[in-house]
Design goal:
The complex is a heterodimer of chains A (about 220) and B (about 160). With about 220 residues, chain A is mainly alpha-helical. Chain A has 8 helices and 7 strands, in the order ββββαββαααααβαα. In chain A, the strands form 3 sheets. Chain A has a 3-stranded antiparallel beta sheet. In chain A, a hairpin with an 8-residue loop joins strand 1 and strand 2. In chain A, helix 1 packs antiparallel against helix 3, helix 1 runs antiparallel to helix 7 and helix 2 runs antiparallel to helix 3. Chain B is mainly α and about 160 residues long. Chain B has one domain. In chain B, about 70% of the residues lie in helices and about 10% in strands. Chain B contains 7 helices and 3 strands, in the order H-E-E-H-H-H-H-E-H-H. Chain B has a 3-stranded antiparallel beta sheet. Chain B is elongated, with a radius of gyration of 18 Å. Classes of the chains: A mainly alpha (about 220), B mainly alpha (about 160). At the A-B interface, helix 3, helix 6 and helix 7 of A face strand 1, strand 2, helix 2, helix 3 and helix 4 of B. The structure holds zinc ion.
Chain lengths: ~220, ~160
């Protein structure tokens, strides 16, 4: 971490205020102005340049491709000549009808709850960081910043798990090729859903969590 | 350090086994279909879905292998008490950058969900590669838990070639 926290949250000194810059890759601290980390060779930035623009761009792209992912079919099941199309939600609902509530819940959480929650969380973080001083009026305590840091860590950790449904489709399509009896083929939504996951992961990776702590100077 | 190297080497061997042994077996109405991990990857290989094939192959096989290999390359010389390898620092940085994109553990949950979905349709057999892959996931997770990144970076710095 690049900032030294005191637990009461009253006064913290960031690396930047101390004239230092921390390496985002290995954590080594250097004097401000050092171009490359002497330990791991990564480029040093006190704050990642253009972080927020990248976050907004990736987030927007992720939301845009998430729409067709929900409209178009994810799975095409052909059984005895009849083809049924299943969307993401349709697949979860069908699992519920089969009585597999636990698995239906996993699919629902991974394909709907996590992506949507991620859009909201990244959007919220980028927004409060972007308009720190204006929205900061509501910011009373340092704990709010800790909460934002925690939110970011959760988003970063959990986002990749949305890929579950794409893998399910891949396995089903490989496995269920029983000619006439049943055939499962992937639908186009699998592509746009994977893109959506990748884009939001890139959005989270572009976000520089150190920006969260810059709001601290507005705390009084 | 030695433990991380051992775990990474184990995971790499398991991955090779998982790719080549039969993964799952499905039988219904007298027909039997066996699929390997590669079949699962190639499921998207028609038309517009082709790019997805490469993505899935990368996420569940290529990137995990690349990551394990770079961990081994960076850490094995130091575990043996030598200087760090020539580009060991770059290799470990690559391994760290790949961490979010290596999705073997997510794939195994996907397999579990798929098994439940298919259960009503046909009888399922689980091949040796399934267990190998599951073991691989377990070893990778253990490895990530044991590995203290700060210690690795510090050791890489101390053992640098003069
Ligand atoms: Zn560094």
């Amino acid at each position: 971490m690049t900032s030294l926290h005191s637990n009461d949250g009253a006064q913290t000194l960031t690396a930047r205020q101390a004239g230092l810059v921390g390496c985002h890759s290995c954590g080594r601290v250097h004097p401000m102005g050092t171009p490359r980390c002497s330990r791991c060779g990564a480029a040093l930035h006190s704050r990642m340049p253009g972080s927020l623009q990248k976050v907004w761009a990736w987030l927007f792209a992720g939301i845009v491709v998430y729409v067709p992912a929900n409209i178009y079919p994810m799975l095409l099941t052909t059984s005895f000549g009849a083809t049924t199309e299943n969307t993401i939600m349709g697949g979860a609902v069908e699992l519920m009808h089969h009585g597999s509530y636990g698995v239906a819940l996993i699919v629902f959480v991974a394909s709907v709850l996590i992506p949507v929650g991620k859009f909201l969380a990244i959007g919220y973080l980028a927004l409060v960081v972007d308009h720190g001083s204006r929205l900061g009026g509501r910011l009373r305590r340092g704990q709010d910043l800790h909460r934002r840091q925690r939110l970011f860590e959760v988003v970063e950790f959990i986002g990749r798990w949305s890929m579950i449904d794409v893998f399910v489709v891949a396995i089903l399509s490989a496995l269920v090729q029983l000619d006439f009896a049943a055939t499962i083929n992937p639908g186009i939504a699998a592509v746009s859903f994977s893109l959506s996951v990748a884009f939001t992961m890139l959005a989270a990776l572009s976000f520089d969590p150190r920006l969260i702590w810059d709001a601290e100077q507005d705390l009084t | 350090m030695t433990r991380i190297v051992m775990l990474a080497a184990t995971a790499l061997v398991l991955m090779v086994a998982a790719v080549f042994f039969p993964f799952l077996e499905l039988s219904a109405g007298g027909m039997v279909r066996q699929s390997s991990l590669l079949d699962a990857v190639l499921a998207f290989s028609s038309g517009l879905l082709l790019p997805l094939t490469f993505a899935v192959a990368a996420l569940i096989i290529v990137l995990p292998v690349l990551r394990l290999a770079s961990i081994l390359y960076a850490l094995a010389p130091m575990a043996l008490g030598w200087h760090s390898a020539r580009h060991g620092v770059a290799a470990f940085r690559l391994a760290e950058a790949l961490r979010p994109w290596a999705m073997a553990e997510i794939f195994i949950v996907g397999v579990a969900v798929a098994l439940v979905k298919v259960a009503g349709l046909a009888r399922l057999g689980i091949g040796p590669a399934f267990w190998t892959f599951a073991a691989l996931v377990l070893v990778t997770v253990l490895n990530d838990t044991y590995m203290c990144r700060l210690t690795v970076w510090k050791t890489l710095e101390e053992r640098r070639r003069p």
